[in-house]
Amino acid sequence: MRYLPKSPADRTEMLEAIGVSSIEALFETIPAEYRLKGDLNIPRQHSESEVLDRFRAFAGNVASGDVAVLASQPASKQYASFLGAGAYRHYRPVVIDSLVQRGEFLTSYTPYQPEIAQGTLQAMFEFQTMICELTGMEIANASMYDGSTGAAEAVMMAVRVTGRNGAVVARTVHPEYREVLHTATQHQGIPATEVGYVTETGRVDLAALDAAITDDTACVLIQSPNFFGTIEDVTAIAEIAHKKGALLIVSIAEAVSLGIVKAPVEADIVSLEAQSFGVAVGFGGPYCGVIACKEKFLRQMPGRLVGETKDKNGKRGFVLTLSTREQHIRREKATSNICTNQALVALMTTIFLTVYGKQGLRELAEQNIAKAAYLRDTLTKAGAKPLFTGPSFNEFAINLPESAETANTKLLGKQIIGGLALAKWYPELGDKATLWCATELTTKVQIDAAAAVI
């Protein structure tokens, strides 16, 4: 018989259906002396991740709970990692792979005739719905390649919407996102002006931003949490952009932040990298980009949009409402040359969000904040110095007592991957500046070990 877990709300509903006020009332016909009054004499239940750790320990013939459990894992998992910067390690519920590997989903088929692919379309529709709930936008497409191409597509979309021909981009946007944007716009005659950040807070310089926006600026592109991990003042930036007739695009590289950080509802377009939602960190991909926006910009949105309708019998059904790519319509009318959507990867995201739910996602975000706060405090006690004072989520920039290269070499010797050196993209910060990240998978033991090396 299958085990079907019940939530407290499920149990309450079941008790109400049979007219009983509580579990205790349900069993009150059993004489008191025969009722169990304490806990069963068995070990406490384990979480899914703990169960997996136990099996890895058995496979490596090491004691359960022993730090040596790491030795039984693949080489890539033997190392503690504090890297983030757009690719984040989060726990993936095992149900994700169990479902996405079903034949109905794991197929190379592209639904050009969508009426015969209702399951695929429903998955896309649910994905779009959850993205809208998370971002505060009115519509979302059925995914893009990744966050970097999504940001570039959002800028080109803003140019089409406004009829203007320039972009103002914060230097706090992921440097590689900015490189992809340059690649996409350089031959289209779309100039991009970069504005710096305030050295104290790590947030975009609002005065410089205001001065950079002209009558020909189509949009302002920011990232929040930004590349330094700092949360931008989206409301203030939106006021500056809208006052001058420009659209605001908010790029989000760490999707889990939406579990607790206020959604960027003031934005006109949101470009999201949803890799954190159940997509494993691989060797460069795959990723899961998304564009969400206000409904009035619907016809300029790249990619696919799935809609809900009813058939002639009144049954719920799904249709490909909008597909603005060249494979579906005349090339000169296409808004984008994005040739596919990441449907299977988007399905992973959908399953992840369904498993966690609203409260679960918030608790996950709270864990990330707590782990990052402990990491920051521990590194500070070890002699490091935080670079910025702005609010952050699970990532932060910090100056180490020695160069990032020297520190990371020492850390690697202890099977620890340290923070990302920032001098490559931000030489003004110096060679000691690094970007550190902690997620729910980061342990206290790993943090203390890294601090000991530093």
TrEMBL record:
EC number: 1.4.4.2
Matches recorded under CDD domains: GDC-P (cd00613)
InterPro entries assigned to the protein according to its UniProt record, in alphabetical order: GcvPA, GDC-P_N, GDC_P, PyrdxlP-dep_Trfase, PyrdxlP-dep_Trfase_major, PyrdxlP-dep_Trfase_small
Any GO molecular function: glycine dehydrogenase (decarboxylating) activity
Name of the protein: Probable glycine dehydrogenase (decarboxylating) subunit 1
EC class (word): oxidoreductase
PANTHER family registered for this protein in UniProt: GLYCINE CLEAVAGE SYSTEM P-PROTEIN, GLYCINE DEHYDROGENASE (DECARBOXYLATING)
Subunit field text: The glycine cleavage system is composed of four proteins: P, T, L and H. In this organism, the P 'protein' is a heterodimer of two subunits.
Key words, A-Z: Oxidoreductase
Swiss-Prot/TrEMBL GO biological process terms: glycine decarboxylation via glycine cleavage system; nucleoside metabolic process
Catalytic activity: N(6)-[(R)-lipoyl]-L-lysyl-[glycine-cleavage complex H protein] + glycine + H(+) = N(6)-[(R)-S(8)-aminomethyldihydrolipoyl]-L-lysyl-[glycine-cleavage complex H protein] + CO2
Function (record text): The glycine cleavage system catalyzes the degradation of glycine. The P protein binds the alpha-amino group of glycine through its pyridoxal phosphate cofactor; CO(2) is released and the remaining methylamine moiety is then transferred to the lipoamide cofactor of the H protein.
Domain Glycine cleavage system P-protein N-terminal positions: 1-449
NCBIfam families: PRK00451.1
Gene3D superfamilies reported in the protein's UniProt record: Aspartate Aminotransferase, domain 1, Type I PLP-dependent aspartate aminotransferase-like (Major domain)
UniProt similarity note: Belongs to the GcvP family. N-terminal subunit subfamily.
High-level lineage: Bacteria, Pseudomonadati, Acidobacteriota, Terriglobia, Terriglobales
Listed SUPFAM superfamilies: PLP-dependent transferases (SSF53383)
Gene name in the database record: gcvPA
